[in-house]
Design goal:
about 475 residues, mainly alpha, Amino acid/polyamine transporter I, about 75% helix, about 0% strand, binds phenylalanine
Length: about 475
Amino acid sequence: MDNSNRGSWKSNFGFLMSAIGSAVGLGNIWGFPYKMGRSGGFAFLLVYILLSATVGVTILLAELAMGRKTGKGAFGAYKSLSKKFKWVGFLAVLCPFLIMSFYTVLGGYCMEYMCLNLSNLAFGVTGASSGADLFGSMLTNPLGAVVFTIIFIVFCYLINRGGVSNGIEKFNKVGMPALFFMLLFVIIRSVTLPNASEGLKYMFVPGYAVDAGYIESAPSIISVIATAGGQVFFSLSLAMGIMITYGSYLNKNESLVKNSFIIAGCDTVVALMAGLAVIPAAIATGITNGVPVDEIQLGGPSLLFITLQDVFNSMGSIGPLFGTIFYLLVLIAAITSTISLIEVVSAYFIDRSIEKGKKPKRSKILTGVCIAVLLESILIAFDGLGSNGLWVPLQETFGVIGQFNDCWLDFIDALTEGFAMPLGAFFMSIMIAWVIKPKSLLPEITNGKENVMSKLFTICIKFVVPVVMLLILLGQIDSFFEIGIFK
Ligand code: PHE
């Protein structure tokens, strides 16, 4: 089959920046640091690194190998490897599509905050509206959110339209190093604020979050493992067809093993850096402003759009500068993740055209995909995280259980991240371990040379991944529905 119409990476560095760009997203900023602080600090970090280096790297390797071996995106790859598991490939295209419904709205919010801080900088406004007021009015003003969501989607569309090497790769090669340096700049300010050491203790010292009253009780060890596993999984953009698609554009000579460890390592380093940038600043400012420690919002959208805006507001005349830089770096993180999601869905249609013997029309396909994403994201923007009283599916059935029914964003997040993704990864490992057998992917993984990785990969995909994926699935269901299995 002629694959020359699909595109490919120009360099391994470009591929790495793009894969790391997909992995580094909002989850690194508002998920990892907060979970680390609440779930045992340094001890959580060790569990996280262990899971990332075993389960994370194994799934990463499997996905990259599936893509490169078949030369196809998520659905095509599953279909060519095993007809029986075609449906898993379908999930791996559907999930990214659904996730974009809210990821693009969040990207729009980041853009709105960056513009706000930039205009404060330009007009010398300091100590502007409080984060809570700003975010509240933003959520209840869906029209503004829709406008920024549209701008965000158009921006991503233009990058993807440039193609794999001239669009995605080019943007990531500049965007990711820029993000890294901006993050360093913000870290320096954050850790030098008075009371910043309190934030460092929250993040790193095991048990400190409980002792100092940030949370009521420590989570059980099983819940720590499930939380760390879920975070590794979402943070590395696994079971979303992304690494399959990006792998299908990769040159046969490159080492998948080396690349997988680099991707997982960089993702963790950026998550830790993000923690140093946000947690000490959030806690230091909270304490200075007299907020009780258990009321400082350290995770999720409220960290990003309420707590941190208050941090910048209280920095005086330099605040808007740090605000602009910070929201710009978050915006880049959101863009580089979104373009990977758009690419997965588009690759499905591109592969279908090629299969039918037609020359794929990349621009046309991208236009269709982005319009569909726009339509679903309008719903999420209008829902405004549940602020505008829209009906949410299953709300009556599930009553007030957990966060599941709070708003449309949580509903879709529970469906995808909570359920379909861990399920997909579980079945992927079953397919590779017991149906097509690890040896069918090993030549791709080791570039034809048997080595210690061949054994490690086989053991991990057969025994470790399925068990951990089931645990993650239970953990996700537990936290999305707040059942309390792992308390
Ligand atoms: N890895 C991203 C993050 O940490 C989330 C994401 C998942 C983005 C899947 C794209 C696809 O935020």
